[in-house]
Design a protein that fits this description.
The chain is 32% helix and 32% strand. The chain is α+β, with helices and mostly antiparallel strands. 26% of the residues are buried.
């Protein structure tokens, strides 16, 4: 599954970034990445990612069968983190959950979309049917990114989550069909490569 990594991708301003799975040795870099995030960004994350114990636990317990973390790296720094979470047993084994965080310096550069496409590629390889994303309703930037990728809102759960300051927020659940997403990507590629000159 990881034979093609590391991969390279170019963001909107021409910067080339590397994409690869997280390994244990990334612990310090990942902690540095999360600590560079603005406090208002960290407020909405599910864990206190500035706590070294949290990142150490992730690094020491890497299990690609349960969570696949894909990192974006530029000049030795992690600038993006996308994860695909999936259940190994039970009635939702066909569903994956995507979580996505990008460095503020790389926002509006389509890094989020690049990482999300990687997650969809992995979901396709793993034969998942559906990918969901959960976010607080206040995270309008995240809502816009996923909407632009074709995700549709499935539900809003009132006062369902608390941020790191203990404040309650509505939880938005969005989803996307994996096969349908890749068909749209393939159609766009086909359109872009088509010779429209009439020759």
């Amino acid at each position: 599954m990881f034979e093609d990594y590391p991969k390279t991708a170019t963001v909107r301003n021409g910067t080339v970034i590397a994409l690869r799975p997280m390994v244990r040795e990334d612990e310090a870099k990942l902690l540095d990445f999360f600590r560079r995030l603005p406090p208002e960004d960290r407020l909405f994350l599910k864990d206190d990612v500035t706590d070294p114990k949290v990142i150490h636990t992730w690094a020491e317990n890497l299990d690609y069968h349960r969570v696949i973390p894909i990192l974006a790296e530029h000049e030795g720094r992690i600038v993006g983190d996308a994860t695909l979470h999936r259940a190994r047993y039970g009635w939702s084994t066909h569903v994956g959950e995507i979580r996505l965080v990008t460095d503020p310096e790389f926002r509006r550069q389509r890094l989020g979309r690049i990482l999300a496409r990687e997650i969809f590629f992995l979901a396709l390889v793993l034969k998942l049917n559906k990918v969901v994303a959960e976010m607080m309703e206040d995270q309008q930037g995240a809502v816009r990114v996923f909407t632009a990728m074709g995700f549709e809102q499935e539900a809003v759960l009132k006062n369902h989550v608390r941020d790191l300051e203990g404040k309650y927020h509505n939880l938005v659940i969005m989803s996307q069909d994996v096969i349908g997403f890749w068909r749209r990507i393939e159609d766009r590629i086909a359109d872009a490569m088509a010779d429209r000159s009439g020759a």
